[in-house]
């Protein structure tokens, strides 16, 4: 409706060819728009009502009015086009780091090398390292995913992977060991707590 106001057009009602005969349309000033038409110009601002009747019983109604006209400022001169912005990597979210190797021992050794790399590159962000691991490395059969929010969590998880210790932030697998196809499962109402599907995954072979 905001765009209808901006363009000065009353849009047609969708999926309707003619008004219902069960309403006396001649009794008032309301009519069903079966075709788009220009929005009439009057001495007052354009206004429109928008209603929402939700299936859950929630009803909402809003009246909107067109904004006052604003005169465009005259340009003082030709402005230089801004340089294209470099997309920033989000560094505040939980991220995965992917590692792979030809054997379990090589996978642990790669985790150790990545720990050494972290110590030598304190300026590298988790997002930058995760991007490089996912896009510049070959994929071998022995694989691991390390999950973390910051360098401290990644360091702790890599230490566990390098020493063979269990960690909730490390998942290891071998390519080709799983039967069937991979699917992503999303709960309909969102994730209320971390790893909320793990119990079902571990207890239900059909779900797994």
What does this structure look like?
By secondary structure, this protein is an alpha+beta fold. 25% of the residues lie in helices and 18% in strands. It contains five helices and seven strands; from the N terminus they run αβββββααβαβα. Strands 5-6-7 form a three-stranded antiparallel β-sheet. It has a two-stranded antiparallel ribbon with strand order 1-2. Helix 2 (104-120) packs antiparallel against helix 4. The longest helix has 17 residues, at 104-120.
Keywords:
208 residues; alpha+beta; three-stranded antiparallel sheet
Average pLDDT taken over every residue: 84
Oligomer: single chain
| Shape summary | elongated
State the total count of DSSP E strands.
7
> β content, as a range?
15-25%
Poorly predicted runs of 5 or more residues: 85-91
From the alpha carbons, calculate the radius of gyration and give it in angstroms.
Answer: 30 Å
Total DSSP helices: 5
In the sheet with the most strands, the strands line up as: 5-6-7
Could you spell the SSE succession in H and E letters? HEEEEEHHEHEH
Largest sheet: 3 strands, antiparallel
């Amino acid at each position: 409706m905001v765009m209808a106001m901006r363009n000065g057009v009353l849009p047609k009602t969708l999926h309707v060819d003619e008004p219902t005969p069960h309403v006396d349309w001649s009794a008032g000033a309301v009519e069903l728009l079966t075709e788009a038409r220009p929005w009439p110009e009057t001495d007052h601002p354009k206004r429109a009502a928008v209603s929402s009747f939700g299936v859950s019983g929630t009803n909402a109604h809003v009246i909107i009015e067109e904004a006052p006209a604003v005169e465009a400022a005259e340009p003082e001169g030709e402005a230089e086009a801004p340089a294209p912005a470099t997309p920033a990597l989000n560094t505040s979210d939980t991220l995965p780091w992917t590692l792979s190797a030809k054997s379990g021992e090589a996978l642990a050794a790669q985790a150790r090398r990545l720990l050494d790399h972290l110590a030598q590159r304190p300026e590298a962000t988790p997002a930058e390292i995760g991007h490089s691991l996912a896009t510049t490395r070959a994929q071998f059969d022995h694989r691991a995913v390390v999950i973390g929010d910051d360098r401290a969590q990644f360091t702790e998880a890599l230490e566990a992977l390098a020493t063979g210790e269990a960690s909730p932030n490390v998942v290891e697998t071998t390519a080709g060991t799983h039967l069937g196809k991979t699917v992503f499962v999303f709960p309909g109402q969102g994730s209320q707590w971390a790893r909320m599907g793990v119990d079902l995954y571990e207890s239900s072979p059909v779900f797994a």
